[in-house]
Amino acid sequence: MLPSQVEAARIFTCDWPADLLQPSDLVQKTDDEIALLLFEGIKRDLLRTHDKKKVDRPILFIASCLGGIILAKALVGADYKSSSYYSLRTATRGIIFLATPFGGTSFEDVAIWADPGLTVWALIRRRELVDMRSAILQIVLEPLPLDRTHRLMNKFDGPKCPDYKQVSGKILEFLTKICGHQDSQCALFAERLKIERLSGDLLPMDRCYINLAIVEWPSDNATHGGKGDTAQQSSPFSLLARLNVETPDKTIEVTLPTLFEPRKSQDGQKKQPSRILIRGRAGVGKTTLCKKIVHDFKYNNLWQGLFNRVLWVPLRNLKVEKRQSAGYNFRDLFYHEYFSQDLEGRELSEALWRALKDTKSGRTLLILDGFDEVSQGLGGDMSVFLEELLNQPNVIITARPNARLPPRLDPLDLELETIGFYPDQITAYIENTFTDRETRERDLEKIKEVQSFLQRHPLMQGLMRIPIQLDAFCYTWNGFPREGVPETMTAVYKAIEASLWKKDILKLQKKKDGEPLTGDQIKKASRKKIESFVEQELRFLECLAFLGFYDDVIDFDWELRNAVSDRFASDLLLDKDLPCLSFLRTSDPSSNDQDRNYHFLHLTFQEYFAARYFIRQWKDKQQLNCLQLSRDNCNNMEPATFLEKYKYDPRYDIFWRFVAGLLDADDMALDFFQMIEKEPRDLLGPTHQRLVMHCLSEVERKESNFTGLRARLENQLEQWLLFESDSTGNSKLVHEMECPGQVLSNVLTQASEGERTVLLESLSKRTAVPFNVIKVVFPWLTNRTSARQCAAILRMLGNQHNNLPDKIHQSIAARLKHENGSVREAAIEALRGRADLPNQVLQSIAARLEDKDRGVREAAIEALRGHAHLPDQVLQSIAARLEDKDGGVQWAAIEALGGRADLPDQVFQSIAVRLEDEDGGVRRAAMKALQGRADLPDQVLQSIAARLEDEDWHVQWKAIEVLLYQSALSLDVLIPHIRSFYDALLQESFREHLFWYASERSFIGTNLRHIYLTSEQHNGKEVVRKLLLEKGAANVNDRRRALLSILSY
């Protein structure tokens, strides 16, 4: 009867498989075994009906009598992502129980994990077989009674039977709700995870292929010593430092999959973090990070076994006016965030709240996005609720760097910072951007042009580490002027602005002579014409940017936006026009306009438009409207007065760069720099020189009325460089990327021997040096130059990412035999990372493995490590360093040899010897070097197994990882250390979801890996049982553990 009404819906029935006349010798199955068979049968049925691809389609169960108990056990048992039946558990969206005795079963567990989307209903009979309390499941709000005997609860006379109509009606109701809820929730879920690029294309998260890098804050990184700390960094005053886009050392990177792995806390104790703060500047990808976490949790099994659910909560929504009610709580939050469009939203939010409450939030991760947006302005009950929300046991809180945490916040376990793209990710992004979506053919010429430009402009290359900046740059590339790509940051931003306006004009449906503008018309339009089409929008952005920047406001709510529009651009319809502007973003485009906050694509775009406003007032000889948005207090000021007051304020550094660049584009740079030179002046000097240097970097080198003043300013800067190097023995100004190449060339040529050495050492700390400076410095790379100067030149050359001429490489290689160890080491480091080194140079580096200087030997190993194909002779020379008297050299050798597939067994044996080293660090490195090989010789495996009893826990666990990676593992290797193997796994299983078993098929299984035990004489399971029992008989605790281990089989 039912199939005729519900058609092709996926419904499974679950009855009690009892037989009153069973053979007396039949082995009775336990309810756990029956539960396992239930899901196995369903899974097999789905495969047989070719339904494998739709295994996550919603399922409705109808369970009668004790069949409900079996279903509950099956569902609870499948409630782990590692379970083979987890997809069936997550697909379960409704259950109808017919006369199931709930009391004393696993239904409390069902209530704990039940998703809000899971609908549970119980139909009970009026005639009592068990008491009513046992017949009602606690999470069922309205159980329905049927006036039938227990035996007839799932049997009906026909389609006209009143009880059948009641049951089938409830089933139809469930199916309508499940399917409708599923469709709407899936659509909403997919929409929220999409990322819109500036081109307008929607990029789903599963195609967002570049991972965000998350790096620990330096203050919390005391344990990350080593060479990573000496990575080249720019001056703290440079553009890259101010934007926080310097490339960090990858050794302190924390990837998403390892985010919740145990690590040392600030007190030195190892702990699995559960409360994490992630800071990040605007535009670096915090919201994208949240989307990626949700996406990877749902589709890629991120943090498998740790959490049942991940809930993304944009905290800004707590400010929405309709939420400002007394006693705001989790139920209200869940309703507003997830279920407000659902007919039974209140019931679903209640169910989700109970799930959190029953598990004490232990299996729920809350992503609390944007704390900085609610750090001020909340009061009363909402402020109390925010504190409760932030103090949940499992949270990831995102915030901007300046956000101040509340005083009553529970301690955080880990504080991190999002930092955008690494250089190799920038390259991958560029290649993907200029790859045809359909043919997958790359535009190699264009890719090469973009990469070449970035290599010539280190400052721009640094800016491209910000995802939104890279997106804007790539989008604009085809629109750059024919005469060439702009050379300054300001010119690039102007080109990006023009490119985005062309797109926005069409979205704004601008008209000319009453007719809508077309793409062809816009494409051919001049910059002046484009600005005339968006005059009101442009003025609004300029004023909004300046007033916000002046008042330190970066998020603009509805009230602030209207205040600016009413005063400066009254013709705009903000709710209609702002969503069309590419320069502004809102974190929640689906909300009402009054509930949205807008911000600029990146803080630098706000500074750019603020500078445009300053230039507009400067040209028109009008005062600046310095309205304080937060206090509605207006203080007008002349542009010249504003410059005098704020020219040395570090917060305005990038602003003044844009002002200089924009004025230069209109041939008005002379007036601006003359104003900078006027009183008041920095009495000390360096801060003024830094301001001049930064602004000069935005002025193109061309013949104009500014040429004479520029020459005087650069000469003045040269004298300051010489004075600084002579008086301080250092040069911070030289260290800055903005220091003009012509100034550097001139000052190096005229400097004394001592001054030149200081300047070269400062240059060696820069990530890049202009090539005209290299041409000046290279001839000094001779044996007549002092060792100190020679080493500085080599280090400077080693930092250049551009392809250096072969002549320079040859000269560097010649220094490998220099009499001074520091020079030899610097020469090796200068050659490191060059993939195209000839074999002769590789042999010369390998010869330094025997060098008397330990630093040279270690540098030689590091340089050779990056080459995938090394001659056997070189590999043997590196292996010989395993016997080096210096521990650092030993470590470097182990790291260099580890993971290589071309190593002979003799080298593996040499590495295995280091497993006995007294230095725990060397033992760990040796173990790491042996990872990745599934066919290690038994002799090496025996040495690894012996480390299961190592005093260092890290060495023990590394040994387990290596053993678990083997394709086959002899019992003879494992038996002597079975107790240690078991104990190590046991200890780890208290921290994470870990299991281990031995079967008659002679194989060990873990949730990490399956290993086949090879033995001709023993049954694997019996041997392991016996040994665990024998080895565990030393004391009461050991006997208890041994007994528990045997019972677990």
Automatic annotation (TrEMBL):
Entry keywords, A to Z: Membrane, Transmembrane, Transmembrane helix
Alphabetized Pfam families for the sequence: DUF7068 (PF23238), HEAT_2 (PF13646), NACHT (PF05729)
Residues in NACHT domain copies: 274-405
Gene3D superfamilies: Leucine-rich Repeat Variant, P-loop containing nucleotide triphosphate hydrolases
PROSITE patterns recorded: NACHT
Organism domain of life: Eukaryota
Matches recorded under SUPFAM superfamilies: ARM repeat, P-loop containing nucleoside triphosphate hydrolases
Membrane-spanning parts: 58-76
PANTHER family: SLR5058 PROTEIN (PTHR46844)
Name of protein: NACHT domain-containing protein
